[in-house]
Amino acid sequence: MKVTNAMLPGYDRDSVAPGILHIGVGNFHRAHQEAYTNELLSKDSSQRGWGIVGVMLLPSDEHSYRSLKSQKGEYTLTVCGRDGNDHTLVIGSLKDVIWGVEDPEAVIDLIASKDIKVISMTITEGGYNIDKASGEFMLDDKAVAHDLQDAGHPTTVFGYVAEGLRKRRQEGVGGVTILSCDNLQHNGDTAQKAFMSFMHAQDSELAAWAQANVSFPNSMVDRITPATRPEDVERLNRRNASNDRVPVYCEDFIQWVIEDKFVAGRPKWEAVGVEFTDDVTAYENMKLSLLNASHTLLSYPSFLAGYRKVDEAMRDDRIVKFVRDFMDKDITPYVPAPGNIDLDNYKRILVERFGNRSVSDQISRLCFDGVSKFPVYIVPNLRKMIQDGKDLTRVAYLIAAYQNYLKYGIDDNGEKFVVSEPWLTDRDRSLIESDDVMDFLGLSPFAGVGLKRSKEFVSLYKVFCDDIRAEGAMRTLETII
């Protein structure tokens, strides 16, 4: 990979050995964990045993895999400042990449390697195969059922990890930490639920070994990282005088808080700004309830209004007020500030981050997979608001906008769009197609919330559904701000 206008790694990559296996080498991972690790490797030569090998398991990963493989894992990361000043780094901490579709045995061998002390992952909120209604791991999922029966030929992340751990156990390699880096409340607990459920169903002896030898820390991750589209690849390469096939760009803000529960050692990430703690709950709650929930809140109304970039939407005073009212009136009462964080300042910075013109995040990215995001970002506080008799206006409007977005696929300007919801069930699809807007409240992300039993919510929601359909999302929004 050729590059001119970028800061090169401050270390010899040949001196770095892998200590971390990461599953799901997407843009967020490459802007977040890799950035932290790259900085640590540059700063402290004693940490050169914590390089990362990336593992990809999906057929859709082929382009990214082949591109990174051809560049020996190197790529450019352009950090976009809120002040308009950007800078670019060449990231060297990704030592290698493996594609499970092409070489499944290499993935299993790597999981079993004595050198690997941490298995981290970004497999998306919906990737843990947890039923939204029962909270249980779905053993009857077709791919999971295959892996339970054919352990030697895994296709899911659960099958791969189980097979790798089985080999690790047989070879007496020792324990390992599984570190979720996904946007989930108690993501380590969710990962533990998923992987341990799979192992209990497949191999009770393996499950017993894992119970004693595998840890699942909770963590909170934060950095806005847009999808990189073909026009972005061209733009970034022109800016950086590079020929990177898979460049990444992100905002200048970054945060990572991790429960310090590693059974086989860990990098000294605290040297580059990562915070370790005994309990990440307050940090998770703050970030998911304010940043992620606000992203979901603004996404569907903004998209229906015809906006396609977050910074453009945040130049609309109506949307800014909607977001600020949601943060201040609806959410702040349920978010105790962790540590020494000033919550008012945190919210002010969030609005700045959303409006970062250099990042210019895609609203379609925020709309993607809402069925997995609502249960994590919106539902927990919505339950409390209903129980406490709070004003439900803004959340009812959001869910009405989501109903319109999913059912009609057309914005206020008459532009058609394609909905991307990979985890919808057949039942969800039938509820979306129903002409009775009340049926939509039975959608899987709202299971168990009791929305239909809240007279205030139902009254608001039905009016908003009708008004959005008749008047458009933004004219309806004007009536509540």
Tell me what you see in this structure:
The chain is an alpha/beta fold and about 475 residues long. The chain is built from 19 helices and twelve strands. Strand 3 (about 75-80) and strand 4 form a beta hairpin. The radius of gyration is 22 Å and the shape is globular.
Count of β-strands: 12
Counting DSSP H or I runs of 4 or more residues, the number of helices is 19
* Helical content (DSSP H or I, runs of 4+): 40-55%
Estimated share of beta-strand residues = 5-15%
Average of the residue pLDDT scores: 97
Low-confidence stretches: none
Structural class: alpha/beta
Read across the widest sheet, the strand sequence of neighbours is 5-2-1-6-7-8
Distance between the termini: 50 Å
Please tell me how large the radius of gyration is: 22 Å
Identify the overall geometry.
globular
User: How is the biggest beta sheet arranged?
Assistant: 6 strands, parallel
What is this entry, summarized?
Helices cover 45% and strands 12% of the residues. The chain has 481 residues and is α/β, with parallel strands linked by helices. A hairpin with a 5-residue loop joins β3 (75-80) and β4.
